[in-house]
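Session log. Operator J.P. requested a structure for one protein chain; no other inputs attached. Running the standard single-chain path with token output.
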Amino acid sequence: MKAEPGNRVSSLKGTQRMTETDNKTRYGRIAVILIALAIVIAAFVLFITMNNERISEQNTKYLQGSTEQSARRISEWMTDSQTEIKLLSSMYESTLSSVDEISADGIEQLANYTKFDYTTISLADGRTIDDRGQVADASDREYFVRGFEGESGVCAVDNSLFYDDLSVVFYTPLFFEGDVVGVISGAYREDSMEKFLRTYIFGEQTNTYLLARNGDVMAHSSITYTNGVKNAVDLYLEEDSSGNISRNDLESSLENGVSVTFNYVGDSGSGTAYVMPIENYDWLIMRTFPNSITDGMQSRANAVGLMLVALVGGALALVAGFLLVQVMRQRRKLLSESEHVTSIVNSSLALFQRFAVIDLVDNTY
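Structure written below.
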């Protein structure tokens, strides 16, 4: 019976060593879990960075592909319109027996065969008649001058003769007995061009512009045009650079008809703009891709990644919490046993001054 305190102490020490070993193992597991969680978080940050870059590159390629398709469609539309106005001139020429027969009635009849918003005929003195009988002087207009020089083509005016709006005008000379006696023109007004150029990307309207080689806007679908976008350079993001291109490089690319991508800023927000030439014509097409679309796509993709990290992190935290609770319970149990044994030893010390531990097997004490 006198050996009981010593045996309890020895047993407690053995239990304590085992418990400390178990706790170290659990703490090690918790450390591994926390390291794994840190790696998952770092991987998520890397995923966000790479995913954002991937989406931006993907959207830039989508913008370029979309613009190229529109450029082909616009080239075909311009060629068809040019063919149509030449056909009208040929038809009208075949009905004339003298120049004096040119009249408002004749141009009104021509308009019935066209898709143009309005059709006009200009005489040598500059007098111009439209298909509604309106008369004005067009002698200072590009299409009048070039038409009487025997040229056919297309031009844009920001103050059309009869409607004072932005119009795209297709023109061709009217011949009679081999001489140019007039110029026949067909025009699309601003509203028609806006509808024709209007484009939606992922449900959001983007801005499309037809540009001259100097960057001047010839036609547009832009919801920001009325806020002052008269030239492509007006959208340029910074004073000296926009993305990887300088302002001078942008102006040079426009002038030479070279495809170019640059960052832009406007009243409707910022984003990426792509400019490319229209085949067979001196005009360019520019389309914008708002950052709001890219930001939305990145946010949705990142939200999925964040949910995955939250699930993994939650599972790791749950395991770490479980192990930590076990360690705390074992610690409380060990402290309770230690306090119990200590109380026994202290009580024995109060009763006896000396103790002997006897080993009956080896006959030692």
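Operator note: The helical segments are 4-95, 104-111, 142-148, 190-197, 247-256, 291-351.
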